[in-house]
Structure formats: structure tokens, C-alpha cells
């Protein structure tokens, strides 16, 4: 990652909601736009990389038979487990092997700009190699993040590393964009 684990731990040291996901009208609208951009109404198994405190998971998990969230911060995962008790949550610090699962939806919501260029390429390689039939939805903050790689540059790097075609969801809030990456070669997960 381009961001150190202790930086992430500090973000969650005082609260399990450092970005005000629960009360912010912007975040509520972003979560609604993200779920609206999902290509299918139902999924077998979703993987959300960088699930944070589970606020987006609360909206996605009901559309899935199974849901797995990954985050690097134990405090975030504890909040996510409380938000979506039936889901599976795994602590992992990227780049690393993603949890096993037969995923047909992979959500990368405001996580790409936390990774290095090498981490972004590895993430794309792993997703393409292990889950070629999955829909991949990337949500990218377009403003300054203070991270070594900003949102648009991180999205360009990921897009260049994946073999998937992307379409951008209809523009909504100009502070973020939502890209939907199609399954590889027309393959579609079960």
C-alpha cells in the first residue's frame, strides 16, 4: 500500500466512523449511487475490498446470497461486523492474496488511491485471474486525498492493468465517479 497501516489505525483510533459515513448526506447519496450502478439486481457472493465500518456493506449485502468484506483496521471490521452480522469480514493489508470465494461482484469503493502503483497492478491481476466472470465496481473520490496517488491517477493505473472494459455510471456528484468493469471476455459469473 502507499498508505502505512499505522496511518489507517490512527484514522479509526477515536471513532469507528472517521469519514462520517453514517450521517453525511454526501456519503448516503454516494452509497445509493453505488448500489444503483450494480449491473445485476442479485449476486451470489460479493467481495468488498476496503469495507471500512460496513456502511456500504449494509446496502450491498441484502442483494447477495453471501458477502465478504476486507479491511486493514480491526476497529473498522468490528463496526462492520456489528452493521452486517451475517457477513464475513477478514482483516488484510493490501497487497495480499484476497480471501477465497466464488465472487461474482467485487466492489472497490474509495480504496484504489490507498494503494501504490504496484499494489494496483497486483490487485487488477489477482481479480482478473481469479474472478474473470465477476462484475467489478470502482468508486473513486476525485478530490485531494493527501495520499501519494490521488483518485484519478489510481483509477487510470487500475484501468490500465485490468483486461476488463469499463463504463462510467451516469454522472452524479462531481466529487466522485463510479466505473463498472465488465467480466473478462464476456464471461459472466454464475
From TrEMBL:
Signal peptide: none
One GO BP annotation of this record: oligosaccharide biosynthetic process
GO molecular function: S-adenosylmethionine-dependent methyltransferase activity
Domain of life: Bacteria
Family annotation (InterPro entries): SAM-dependent_MTases_sf, SAM-MeTfrase_NodS-like
Any one Pfam family match given in the protein's UniProt record, by short name: NodS
Protein name: Nodulation protein S (NodS)
Gene source species: Hasllibacter halocynthiae
Amino acid at each position: 500500500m502507499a498508505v502505512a497501516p499505522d496511518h489507517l489505525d490512527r484514522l479509526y483510533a477515536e471513532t469507528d466512523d472517521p469519514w462520517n459515513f453514517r450521517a453525511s448526506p454526501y456519503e448516503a447519496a454516494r452509497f445509493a449511487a453505488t448500489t444503483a450502478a450494480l449491473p445485476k439486481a442479485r449476486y451470489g457472493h460479493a467481495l468488498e475490498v476496503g469495507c471500512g465500518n460496513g456502511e456500504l456493506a449494509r446496502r450491498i449485502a441484502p442483494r447477495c446470497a453471501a458477502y465478504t468484506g476486507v479491511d486493514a483496521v480491526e476497529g473498522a471490521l468490528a463496526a462492520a461486523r456489528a452493521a452486517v452480522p451475517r457477513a464475513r469480514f477478514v482483516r488484510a493489508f493490501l497487497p495480499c492474496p484476497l480471501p477465497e470465494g466464488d465472487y461474482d461482484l467485487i466492489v472497490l469503493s474509495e480504496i484504489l488511491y490507498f494503494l501504490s502503483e504496484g499494489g494496483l497492478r497486483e490487485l487488477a491481476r489477482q481479480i482478473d485471474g481469479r474472478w474473470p466472470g465477476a462484475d467489478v465496481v470502482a468508486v473513486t473520490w476525485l478530490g485531494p486525498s493527501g495520499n501519494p496517488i490521488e483518485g484519478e491517477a489510481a483509477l487510470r493505473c487500475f484501468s490500465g492493468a485490468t483486461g476488463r472494459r469499463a463504463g462510467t455510471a451516469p454522472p452524479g456528484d462531481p466529487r466522485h465517479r463510479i466505473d463498472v468493469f465488465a467480466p473478462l471476455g464476456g464471461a459472466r459469473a454464475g
